[in-house]
């Protein structure tokens, strides 16, 4: 079947937090924008991996510090939309001591649909990116696949919001972290939703720690989080959000993902028997897992200027900033082992414009967890709250590139000015 080539000003690959924000940001600049997503819904890890909390919207990791919002623009518009739908968006303190917003996946899907469909954005679901075509230092087109077959899409500018840096890899951007066998990556998690626990049941962390220790003493598949992991009530359903399944995967190869996902489901099923020994959890059952694992890290491209651990440690400010990163540098060293390094200064650091510019490819912008970052800074910028901000900046920059033509050079000042006009915090 001969499918005609499509043409847009901006093509955004990936419909998670960064991709949605990029598409909305670009469309509001007047760019003819296409958003391509491989699933049948938007939201990224929040909806496809049951990561039912938004991190990075607020500072306030210290117990005596009032949370300060660091994310505006498209991300905060989405939160206000959820509030109008009857969902609380006030931050709550997580087990790690940091501020998060608990979310409902089904409500979020609808809110994201409404947000994207309110703009002149072309939307393609069940569509997977399979190639990029480059001439010189620019991407000319991408090839995508849906049930019709393969077809090409041309654009003046592109945004990689795929999470796994697929567009960057296809476009030949050098990788800081190439992933694959032997790579030292943060482990993935399989968050699950648990039903059947009465509303008045109080979780006893000390008891759960003892139950896990007893189980692990003889377990073939031990529970990696010794204290039972994250256990929180979800809004509306009052179900339990449980995250205790951690395991290593390269996050990109089909064979290794099959191994990891089947093993994760087996672990969640076995670990449930331990949870049922906690008083009040006797009738607990698995209500849902996501269509995929929650992948923290797979591949990371180089940018024109990667953010680094010192930026976070000192809360570094910059006149080149296009987003604020306020989540602590959360690095998962191995399954069940993680550390949090607080952000210095005012509790956030600026992500410079150069960090969303792909190294060596003039018309490719980066959003979300594929922006340029070293291992430490990556632990902060990868979260979804920050992804909304970097994604929106990537979309705005891409739209300006498309408007300026092939020889255009978009300054930081222009991007910041347009972001402020869209309500972003920079």
Automatic annotation (TrEMBL):
The keyword Disulfide bond does not apply. GO terms for molecular function: 4 iron, 4 sulfur cluster binding; metal ion binding; oxidoreductase activity. It holds the Pfam family FAD_oxidored. Keywords: 4Fe-4S, Iron, Iron-sulfur, Metal-binding, Oxidoreductase. InterPro entries: FAD/NAD-bd_sf, HdrA-like. Transmembrane segments: none annotated. It comes from Rhodoferax koreensis. The keyword Cytoplasm does not apply. This is FAD-dependent oxidoreductase. It comes from the Bacteria.
């Amino acid at each position: 079947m001969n499918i005609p080539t499509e043409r847009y000003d901006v093509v955004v690959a990936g419909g998670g937090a960064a991709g949605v924000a990029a598409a909305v940001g670009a469309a509001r600049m007047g760019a003819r924008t296409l958003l391509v997503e491989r699933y049948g819904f938007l939201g990224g890890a929040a909806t496809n991996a049951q990561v039912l909390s938004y991190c990075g919207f607020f500072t306030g990791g210290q117990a005596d510090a009032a949370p300060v919002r660091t994310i505006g623009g498209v991300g905060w518009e989405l939160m206000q939309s959820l509030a109008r739908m009857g969902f609380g968006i006030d931050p709550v303190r997580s087990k790690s001591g940091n501020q998060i917003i608990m979310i409902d996946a089904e409500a979020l899907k609808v809110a994201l649909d409404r947000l994207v469909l309110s703009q002149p954005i072309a939307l393609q679901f069940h569509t997977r990116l399979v190639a990029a075509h480059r001439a010189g230092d620019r991407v000319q087109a991408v090839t995508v696949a849906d049930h019709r077959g393969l077809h090409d899409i041309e654009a003046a500018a592109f945004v990689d919001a795929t999470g796994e840096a697929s567009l960057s890899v296809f476009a030949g951007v050098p990788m800081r972290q190439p992933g694959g066998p032997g790579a030292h990556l943060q482990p993935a998690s399989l968050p699950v939703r648990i039903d059947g626990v009465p509303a008045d049941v109080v979780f006893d962390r000390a008891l759960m720690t003892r139950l896990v220790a007893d189980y692990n003493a003889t377990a073939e598949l031990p529970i990696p989080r010794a204290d039972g992991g994250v256990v929180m009530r979800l809004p509306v359903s009052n179900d339990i959000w449980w995250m205790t399944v951690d395991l290593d995967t390269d996050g990109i190869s089909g064979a290794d993902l099959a191994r990891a996902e089947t093993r994760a489901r087996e672990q969640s099923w076995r670990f449930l028997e331990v949870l049922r020994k906690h008083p009040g959890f006797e009738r607990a059952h698995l209500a849902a897992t996501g269509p995929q694992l929650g992948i923290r890290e797979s591949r990371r491209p180089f940018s024109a200027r990667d953010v680094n651990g010192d930026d976070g440690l000192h809360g570094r400010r910059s006149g080149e900033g296009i987003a604020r990163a306020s989540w602590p540098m959360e690095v998962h060293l191995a399954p069940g082992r993680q550390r949090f390094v607080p952000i210095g200064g005012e509790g956030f650091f600026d992500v410079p414009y150069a960090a969303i510019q792909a190294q060596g490819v003039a018309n490719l912008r980066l959003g979300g967890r594929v922006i340029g970052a070293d291992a430490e800074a990556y632990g902060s910028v990868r979260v979804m709250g920050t992804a909304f901000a970097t994604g929106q900046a990537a979309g705005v920059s891409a739209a300006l590139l498309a408007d300026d033509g092939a020889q255009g050079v978009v300054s930081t000042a222009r991007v910041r000015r347009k972001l402020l006009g869209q309500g972003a915090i920079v």
